[in-house]
Design a protein that fits this description.
Strands 4-3-2-5-1-6-7-8 form an eight-stranded mixed β-sheet, sandwiched between helices. It has one domain (4-31, 101-247): 3-Layer(aba) Sandwich (Rossmann fold), CATH 3.40.50. The protein is globular and about 45 Å long. By secondary structure, the chain is an alpha/beta fold. The protein has helices spanning 16-27, 53-69, 72-97, 110-119, 121-124, 129-140, 155-169, 187-207, 222-237, and strands at 4-9, 33-35, 41-44, 47-50, 101-105, 147-152, 211-216, 245-247. α1 crosses α9 and α2 (53-69) runs antiparallel to α3.
């Protein structure tokens, strides 16, 4: 009832979703895992049990609609609703499935504290990071993760991956790819968010006891990143990860 909590975080285009899913599938041969966040499921020995499919589909459809609107306030509001839902979802899944690990992309404490500066800059920037983290934690009542994997990705590589995603999702598009970019997927904004991730992790780690494994994705393909996530997750669960911040 007190699983290890792990999040893979980083800017869009860092490969969070792909590498996390690869790692979850390989780790499920050793640990029962709840994957929270978008499209949640429980997995054990490679056998997947989707969780709350209708609610998951509701959020996916909601995100598609508000993202297409390009209205920053509405997009931010949809993410706030999602974060609040995660405050209920994680305890529900832990109680129902009794996992050894809870894994997800993004952190429901750190990511909202960072992205609030983008979606609601005037209101958000009146508060420092420590205060925002404290308020968010009080509202959703989730702890910081025990282990974070921070995918440190060059902006140029992130943009390359984002454009590839657009090409895969919209093969009919041969021009105007920028139309399909999310509001925060432009180079200057990604640079801002990247710096915020590094600052916020440091600040949060000063006030909470967790480990960070920083992986420079410029040096590794996604399969290798997933292998690093698997390796250090096992080390952590076995009590053999001593360093508070590891850089690969």
């Amino acid at each position: 009832m007190n699983p290890f909590r792990i999040s893979v975080i980083g800017i869009d285009g860092s490969g969070k979703s792909t590498t996390t899913l690869r790692a979850i599938y390989s780790l499920s041969n050793q640990f029962p895992i709840c994957k929270t966040g978008r499209n949640p499921f429980f997995i054990w020995k490679g056998n997947v049990t989707p969780c709350l499919i209708h609610i998951a589909n509701f959020f996916e459809n909601l995100f598609k609609k508000v993202d297409a609107s390009k209205k920053r306030g509405w997009i931010g509001l949809s993410r706030i609703i999602f974060v609040l839902f995660q405050g209920w979802l994680e305890p529900y899944m832990v109680k129902r499935y009794h996992p050894k690990l809870v894994m997800t992309t993004r952190c429901m404490l750190i990511d909202p504290a960072i992205y609030s500066d983008f979606y609601y800059p005037k209101a958000s920037r009146r508060m420092d990071i420590e205060k925002k983290l404290k308020i968010i934690q009080q509202i959703i009542r989730l702890p910081f993760r025990d282990l974070y994997f921070f995918l440190n990705t060059p902006i140029s590589k992130a943009i390359e991956r984002i454009y590839k995603r657009i090409s895969d999702d919209h093969p009919e598009v041969t021009y105007g790819r920028d139309y399909w970019l999310h509001l925060h997927e432009h180079p200057e904004i990604l640079q801002f968010l990247d710096q915020k991730f590094k600052e916020t992790l440091k600040i949060a780690q000063n006030g909470s006891d967790f480990n960070v494994v920083e992986i420079n994705t410029a040096y590794y393909v996604e399969e290798e990143v997933a292998q690093w996530i698997h390796h250090y997750s096992v080390l952590f669960c076995e009590g053999n990860l001593r360093e508070k911040w590891v850089r690969i």
